[in-house]
TrEMBL record:
Annotated Dynein heavy chain AAA module D4 domain residues: 4-124
Gene3D superfamilies associated with the record: 1.20.920.20, P-loop containing nucleotide triphosphate hydrolases
Protein name as catalogued: Dynein heavy chain AAA module D4 domain-containing protein
A single Gene Ontology CC term: dynein complex
């Protein structure tokens, strides 16, 4: 094997091309995404694009159930909390559509929004439980 600087650089470059994989996450919202695509056309030409669509109700239910199951709620109460999270998410989607129709401005309600809702609900429930336990133990 040739150990000259040029050969080493060539070897390194080949190895990087063969083994380096990147995940780039970009939001398609707004002008920033479009301008980046124009500045870097390889983002379209040389990449695999995965678009995520809205989640069906079954997915929303499964995600919320999974995220809330370890906070020890009785089954009927857990089902009600999951239904409430789904209801909130769908309500916000409807309001976002009305917002678009009336004000001509988009507000995107994504799967990330739903996850944030469930995480916030979970955190709030745990904080309230802790506050009640603290008051009880006084």
């Amino acid at each position: 094997m040739d150990l000259s600087p040029g050969a080493l650089l060539s070897f390194f470059t080949e190895r990087v091309k063969a083994n380096l994989h990147l995940v780039v996450s970009l939001s398609p919202l707004g002008r920033t995404f479009t301008s980046r695509l124009r500045m870097f056309p390889s983002l379209i030409n040389c990449c695999t694009v995965n678009w995520f669509t809205t989640w069906p109700d079954e997915a929303l239910e499964m995600v919320a159930t999974t995220l809330l199951e370890d906070i020890k709620l009785e089954a009927p109460l857990l089902a009600q909390c999951v239904s409430a999270c789904q209801y909130f998410h769908h309500s916000v989607q409807l309001l976002a559509n009305r917002f678009q129709e009336h004000l001509r401005r988009r507000h995107y309600v994504t799967a990330s929004s739903y996850l944030e809702l469930v995480f916030t609900f979970r955190q709030l429930l745990m904080q309230k439980r802790q506050a009640i336990l603290t008051l009880r133990d006084r």
